[in-house]
Amino acid sequence: MIVQLYTQSQLRNFTYLIKAEAGWYCIDPFDAEQVTSRIDGKLIAVINTHEHWDHTKGNEVLRDQTGCEVWAHSAAVGKIQGVDRFLSKDETIDLGESKSFLVMDTPGHTHAHLCLLYSEEGSPKAVFTGDTLFNAGVGNCHNGGDPEVLYETISKQFQNLDGQIKVYPGHEYLGNNLKFTLDREPTNQSAKDLYKDYEKDNFLVTNMNLERQINTFLRLDQDEIKNKLEGDTSSEKQVFLRLRELRNKW
Question: Does the model's pTM come out above 0.90?
């Protein structure tokens, strides 16, 4: 079971709860009370995708109240307090009942960022992306990140993920991201259609197939996108960097 919690915060954070055989796991707790009110049993661990405060805010209270452990990226030493277990690239977290997380090392937004690929019976079903990949967008690199590194992460680790994998990001930015997509690619009918759905329901879950249709940062080969950009567009990396610069100010 995957529970997506919208936190009502100014930053539009999502927190996630995953029910496993032995209890619950929590990804990026913002409001500890919101978490404890939704679980019906033991909280095994909190997993932080990265060190920014809005993704770690509930750590201490949850640890004190429930006795859970706090897990984070191996590069988060000294960046997140009270971490009990540091996770490494390609590490598997066994959730029981043939369910698991695969730890993805996904630098770019920060250099201590991980994502979690969730599988059932060995088949990937969902990816928890923190601030690396958003619905119809990607993360910024303002606070300890690097857009060139983010490009490598997106192009090598996300671009070719199976299309049915659901995308669970760290923030609800879909509406604004779709507006950016349509600003860059006005003829994108998939983005237009999804925006109509978004106006009826802000909390839509996309998958990688849909992301490749509506996420500008996964559509770097599209002439309509490239032709509207100024500067170097000689490679997909340069297109990505130009788009990220524009999105910073958009």
Answer: yes
